[in-house]
Amino acid sequence: MDKELFLKKYEEVYRDMYRYALMTLGHRQDAEDTVSDAVCDAYRQRESLNDPEAFRGWIFRILSRKCIGKKRDYATKKTVSLDVPKEDEDNDTSVIDNMPDDSSPCTEGHTIMCMMLRALDEDDRRIILLHIFGGYTSAEIGDIMGMNDATVRSREHRALKKLREDFTP
To answer: Rounded distance, CA 3 to CA 155, Å?
Structure first.
């Protein structure tokens, strides 16, 4: 893949990559750093991608592994919570406020979504985030997470059912 095509494809997925990293890691700076690391790795490996149409899945697999590594670092250092977005430690705004999109700042809906995601275990949360922000199918998520696609569908179904039960009035 040449440089120009890489940049074009990257521009198409950057926002979703950042959102995924932010929702996974919970801290703006960590999300930015992790996306940067993933993009650098992908750029160095760009010649190994034979099908440009597979770019999104390929770069999200790299990002997902980077996020897992960062969460391992959190656990090893025991200095940062493994929860999904809380308040950003650098200021008094939610990390959701820092998402790069064209919408208005954090809304009540974003806060509720973050609270709902925190109710899920880490694997279920990753499945939901990869499906929503990455746009992946269960087979693709299975490849990324090393699970059978039927297991992914089952876990997603149970996670969504749990969210409906816990958060429907």
So the answer is: 38
For residue 83, the model assigns a pLDDT of: 47
Q: Is the pLDDT of residue 85 over 70?
A: no
**C-alpha span between 54 and 135 (Å, rounded):** 13
Length reported for the chain: 169
Tell which residue, 161, 27, 21, has the closest CA to residue 93. 27
Please, which residues have CB within 8 angstroms of residue 38's CB and are 6 or more apart in sequence?
17, 59, 62, 63, 66
Measured distance CA(102)–CA(64) in Å, rounded: 24
146 sits in the region (left: phi over 0; alpha: psi -120 to 50; else beta) called left
Residue 153 pLDDT grade (very low, low, confident, very high; cuts 50, 70, 90): very high
CATH number of 3-167: 1.20.140
CA distance 46 to 4: 11
